[in-house]
Amino acid sequence: MYEYELQQLRAADLIRRADHERQVREAARARRAARREAAESSPEHESHTRRFRRPRSARAA
Fold this sequence. Notes:
With 61 residues, the chain is mostly helical. The protein contains two helices and no strands.
């Protein structure tokens, strides 16, 4: 009986941990989405990009 109760406690603990980790991932995903949405709607988004364009013509050898 004692081992069964320990197993039940371990299972409940694992379920709680998994639920907490899932909530953490969802919160991080929501923060990233909100940050992305705010960056896209800001006027700076159009004028400043982090990607650099490739030169249109090839370099001379």
